[in-house]
Design a protein that fits this description.
By secondary structure, this protein is mainly α. The protein contains 8 helices and no strands. 66% of the residues lie in helices and 0% in strands.
Length: 137
């Protein structure tokens, strides 16, 4: 934030000061730290919770998560945490990195190149992290 006369920057500064006054711990809050609180669900649990339980012929977890990823890409940069979580879950459900990249790239026609690029950056963060842990799929 560089221009103190910019009304958006003024509002952001006021909001940050208010959050610090209400809860000093929010000063160092990180959405990525919050993501660590949510474990990756096993594929079987995802299918039981979000499908297959009600309709055995319904969409599998991988397909559901790729569709979710497409929708989140359409929402743009406001969905960074949700995109990273969905990519992590999609990998666990059996999606390949190519399928994830193709799903996001497909949305460029509907959401625009900036939203697609931003979602691809978030997905790449997750996929690069999974390689470090030996979870390359």
């Amino acid at each position: 934030m560089t221009d103190p006369k910019n009304p958006f920057e003024m509002m952001m500064n006021q909001a940050q000061e208010m959050a610090k006054a209400m809860n000093p711990a929010l000063e160092s809050f990180s959405p990525k730290g919050f993501e660590k609180l949510w474990p990756t669900m096993p594929k079987e649990f995802m299918e039981m919770s979000f499908g297959k339980g009600a309709s055995k012929d319904g969409l599998d977890a991988k397909t559901r998560l790729l569709l979710t990823l497409a929708g989140l890409t359409m929402l743009g940069a406001q969905s960074d945490t949700q995109i990273r979580l969905t990519v992590r879950h999609a990998l666990e459900a059996g999606a390949t990195k190519e399928e994830i990249a193709e799903t996001i790239a497909q949305m460029s026609m509907f959401a625009g190149i900036p939203s697609m690029t931003r979602a691809m950056d978030f997905a790449r963060e997750v996929m690069d992290g999974s390689e470090e842990k030996g979870k390359d799929k």
